[in-house]
Amino acid sequence: MSQNLQSIFEVYVAGVGPSSSHSMGPERAARLFAAGLAETPARIRVTLQGSLAATGRGHWTDRTLVRTLNPVPVDVVFDSQTTNLPHPNTMIFAAFSAQGDLLREWTVCSVGGGSLREADGRPVARAEPAEYPVGNIADAMDYCHANHLEFWQLVEQSERDVWPRLENIWRAMTDTVKRGLASKQIILPGTLELARRAGTTHSRALGLKGTPRELGLVAAYALAVAEENAAGMQVVTAPSCGAAGVLPAVLYYFKARRRVPQRRILEALATAGLFGASIRANATVSGAEAGCQAEIGSACSMAAAAAAQLLGATLRQIEYAAEMAMEHNLGLTCDPIEGYVQIPCIERNMNAALRAIECATFTQLTDGRHLVSFDDVIEVMNRTGRDLQAAYRETSTGGLAQLWRRDIETRLRKPARS
Questions:
Q1: What is the structure's pLDDT at 407?
Q2: Cβ-based neighbours of 232, under 8 Å, separated by 6 or more
Q3: Cβ of 260: how many Cβ atoms within 10 Å?
Q4: What are the Cα distances from residue 74, in Å, to 14, 81, 92, 96?
Q5: Residues of the chain whose pLDDT is less than 70?
Q6: How far apart are the C-alpha atoms of 400 and 392, rounded to whole Å?
Q7: Structure confidence at residue 392 (pLDDT)
Q8: What pLDDT score was predicted for residue 125?
Q9: For residue 135, what are the contacts with CB-CB under 8 A and spacing of at least 6?
Q10: Residue 303 has what pLDDT?
Q11: Domain layout of the chain by residue ranges
């Protein structure tokens, strides 16, 4: 058995977007660094490396650091040349006196979901420790079968004050959906000038009937959260900001359209958190480490597990839904255009939410037995992510990002029409 799971409240963290690894993580690191200083420095230098250097401007990393460390002057250095890093999202904080003396230096890594890790690999703890007796989903299934528990009951047994804390998380998720649907903002921040679509998608879906209406509403809920994140508003990581729209969209649909009681929604949220905690413990939820499969794929798995439970699935069927959701996201690249969490990120939230419900529905037609386990597919996801070229791991140098840049250059070279 692997190391026991950490708290699901390392998976669910409320914070400001657009990126848990590029804005939430650096903000937390900056606060910790400042709190650890014995005196107020004259200035602070923050060196961003790896993916943080490549896409930090589009993710507002520099802005976040300057705002968080204010009123101390901050120099943000984008170092895209240094290799052999402890993590693709590495930051070096350095504080200096008025005389230029180095007061303190700290190398820290933003490893996804707003979590931090020391350069030597030690986690920088955030949530109150949990006491899980399991290290992965296979362990969890064995434990639950042996003790006649559901997945959510294992979470209830292992976490402190789980239901009030999950109520707060669910309230924050619900607020984000509602804000996104009601937003009057027309264009999202950034050079792409991308239009918000959640509100119009929602109103148009209500004009449809039957299955198209239901699918359209799920799409609208996912777009609402993803667009709020892209606008730098508060979201809840599930397991990251870039994938924050998937799970809330699915759960909000079951609550609003299928009238599922809130207690059952919270139980599904607990189960989804358990699957997210297992991914964090045995792989990664960082797009910079393993591509978008680690973010959207993980969110899709979590949402599929939650939806399957709400549909009355067995433990085995829930595990199958989560496995299937990840299996068909394997190899998904992280290639945000201009570094913004907008294209393809926003539509991927919508796509993953719909896929999660499909996976959960299909498992109801089976007895839950299948060949590839959830833990197996997470191991494969992790290895696949490490094998991806760096261009496809949140550097904006490959895939859609490269195509966009090439098309821009082509248009600029074309002579203007007379």
A1: 73
A2: 16, 17, 18, 23, 60, 189
A3: 16
A4: 25, 21, 13, 11
A5: 1-2, 127, 408-418
A6: 9
A7: 92
A8: 73
A9: 1, 2, 3, 4, 5, 278, 281, 282
A10: 98
A11: 19-124, 137-404
The pair of structure tokens assigned to 320 is: 């199958």
CATH architecture for segment(s) 19-124: 2-Layer Sandwich (3.30)
Write out the chain in H/E/C secondary structure: CCCCCCCHHHCCCEEECCCHHHHHHHHHHHHHHHHCCCCCCCEEEEEEEEHHHHHCCCCCHHHHHHHHHCCCCEEEEEECCCCCCCCCEEEEEEEECCCCCEEEEEEEEEEECCEEEECCCCEECCCCCCCCCCCCHHHHHHHHHHHCCCHHHHHHHHCCCHHHHHHHHHHHHHHHHHHHHHCCCCECCCCCCCECCHHHHHHHHHCCCHHHHHHHHHHHHHHHHHHHHHCCCEEECCCCCCCCCHHHHHHHHHHHCCCCCHHHHHHHHHHHHHHHHHHHHHCCCCHHHHCHHHCHHHHHHHHHHHHHHHCCCCHHHHHHHHHHHHHCCCCCCECCHHHCCCCCHHHHHHHHHHHHHHHHHHHCCCCCCCCCCHHHHHHHHHHHHHHCCHHHECCCCCHHHHHHHHHHHHHHHCCCCC
Q: If you search the block for the tokens 């297992």, which residue do you land on?
A: 278
At 228-277, the pLDDT tens digits run: 999 999 999 999 999 999 999 999 999 999 999 999 999 999 999 999 99
Q: Give me the residues paired with residue 235 across strands.
A: 15
Number of neighbouring beta carbons within 10 Å of residue 401: 27
Q: Which residues contact 189 (CB under 8 A, 6 or more apart)?
A: 230, 231, 232
Question: Comparing C-alpha atoms, which of 273, 392, 373 is closest to residue 323?
Answer: 373
**Residue with tokens 């931090």, as numbered in its chain:** 116
Record the tokens describing residue 74, joined without a space.
């901050």
Q: Phi, psi (5° rounding) for residue 235?
A: -135, 180
Neighbours of 351 (CB within 10 A): 17
Give the class (CATH, top level) of 137-404. Answer: mainly alpha
